[in-house]
Amino acid sequence: MATHVRAEAPPAARSSWRSRLYRFDLKASPYAFIAPFFLCFAAFGLFPLIWTGWLSLHYVDLLKPDVMEWKGFGNYTRLWSNDQFWTALRNTFTIGVISTVPQLLMALGLAHLLNYRMRGRGFFRVAILAPYATSIAAATLVFVQLFNPDYGFINWALDVVGIHPNWYSETWPSQIAISTIVTWRWTGYNALIYLAAMQAVPKDLYEAASLDGASRWQQFTRITIPSIRPTIMFTIIVSTIGATQLFGEPMLFGGGVGVSGGSAHQFQTLSLYMYELGWPSRQLGRASAVAWTMLLILLLIGLAQYLITRYRNRNELGG
Amino acid sequence: MAATLSTPSSREAKHAQPARPRGLFRRKAGEHDKAGPITYVLLGVAALVSLFPLYWTFVAASNTGERVALSPPPMVPGGELWNNISVAWDQADMGTALLNSTIVAGCVSLSTVLFSTLAGFAFAKLRFRGRNALLTLVVATMTIPPQLSVIPLYRIITDLEWSGHLQSVILPSLVAAFGVFFMRQFLSEALPFELIEAARVDGANSMRVIWHVVFPIARPAMAVLGMLVFVQSWNDFFWPFVALNAQNPTVQVALSGLGGGSGHDINQAVIMTGALVGTLPLLLIFAVLGKHIVGGITSGAVKS
């Protein structure tokens, strides 16, 4: 681009004006092209984010948003000593783990299987992606039926082994049920991402390994996993972000008592807690404090991931 | 885009080399990467688990509410589908909801594709000050949860009296960081610098380069991105749930109204019908274009 020369020199008089226009176009157009994104982000992302931070330092009523009463860090200290907040934080963490870890492991396994030559590969790929086409709302409503303790399909099937968990009122079963919805919707999507990464691994690596007598399992752990590690990191980050903001599944899973996340808040996530504070309880300041706490948690997770990657890289370089 | 679908040929070479089958994965030498029966069984189970809830939605939507709430649950479709659809249509205003979701997802995907292509082109092929820092910023914005903006946005749309109107959900989603990144990844590989330079030499300004060079080359990626954004926008829940209401809902907001209780007085079959009607448009898109969507997802994420 930079070394470009005009093919023919136009007449001198008009050329200075035209070439100035031309150079302006070259200089300015990149910024014009990226401007829509940054304008949109500034207006609907950054500005509200800062405003949320400002609100979190005040008492604000949803119905009288113009009246702001300064609280300093009062909303945050109140969160710190609030049991429901800690429950929501713990739930977000446990639901996050039991929805993300099995999901990504299964996706990895499925991707490995899909990587074989086989009949009907197109069918299998579209079939495991089908849940991705289902919305949070539709999927949750369907799983509410399947998990119904009295007449649901799952307890009917579990009758064989003689267990009847109550998928709403008990803490672990309810969290497992919600995680199942998340896992069902996203496993196929992640499997396809892994599959694409696996197909980019050079085939001669496997040939060399198998000549050296490496078993299939060894090939999987020593070649496949290290080769697609950037992709695995990518999915871990995306899933972590998704898990932190889980809202629709627990909300609709709770039915009539949705926002409270069950009668004992047994499956209330941070996001749901924020909504409960902001809308049903009308305390926008406290809700904003929860939102900013979520951001801080994400930053901490991001920092931890960064440090782990750096530590590991340094170890590997050092031998 | 279609790279993922045409791999068998690239793998034939492996066919001839000696394999050392072991344990669970034992199969004939020389059939190294051919799927064995266990692979088919496991994938069959995965496909069944993926599809069964969708099948069961149809079963429940075509039975009576009383039947759905009986154990053992119904396993075969009944004859109540049309009846349930007409009830759900009245109860949750599914007609308005489908129309609204189509408008919202249509506008959002059109504008996201347009703006993402422009920005993706700039990040992939143009030189300008701050390019790398700005691209990092774009990727970083993906990590910010929507929860951090809903409260001020709610305030803004209330002040503008947009609450309950579609523009309140369309405007904040006009362009997405994911789309910018997606188009940048595609154009860095698919668009040769020579082509842009040739157009420049012919005296084309930036708009003409976009129109005559970038758009024609980006078209397949734009189509895939459009489908992905359409699906995402159609299924978006949190912000539409806050910004809209039952009088003028999108499909997801209408569904959340249907599921507002789990007591026995509520007709469960009608809820399932709502879920079915709200999902069917996307399932149809998947049935027709599934292969392209699969290719799009797999091509977008790897090259990071």
Which second-level CATH architecture of the largest domain in chain B applies? Answer: Orthogonal Bundle
Largest interface: A-B, 117 and 127 residues
> Percent of residues of chain B in helical segments?
55-70%
Largest sheet of chain A: 2 strands, antiparallel
Cα end-to-end separation of chain B: 15 Å
Strand content of chain B: under 5%
Domain count of chain B: 2
Low-confidence stretches of chain A: 1-9
CATH homologous superfamily heading of the largest domain in chain A: MetI-like
Decide which structural class fits the backbone of chain B: mainly alpha
- Tally of DSSP helical segments of chain A: 13
Order of helices and strands of chain B: HHHHHHHHHHHHHH
Q: Helix tally of chain B? A: 14
User: What is the correct CATH architecture of the largest domain in chain A?
Assistant: Orthogonal Bundle
Strand content of chain A: under 5%
If you had to describe this structure to a student in words, what would you say it looks like?
The complex is a heterodimer of chains A (319) and B (304). Chain A has helices spanning 12-55, 74-80, 83-114, 121-129, 136-146, 153-158, 171-199, 203-211, 216-227, 229-244, 248-253, 270-278, 284-318, and strands at 58-61, 64-70. With 319 residues, chain A is mostly helical. Chain A has two domains: 12-74, no CATH class; 83-318, MetI-like (MetI-like fold, Orthogonal Bundle). Mean pLDDT of chain A is 89; it is low at 1-9. With 304 residues, chain B is an all-alpha fold. In chain B, 46% of the residues are buried. Mean pLDDT of chain B is 84; it is low at 1-31. Classes of the chains: A mainly alpha (319), B mainly alpha (304). At the A-B interface, helix 1, helix 3, helix 4, helix 5 and helix 6 of A face helix 1, helix 2, helix 5, helix 6 and helix 7 of B.
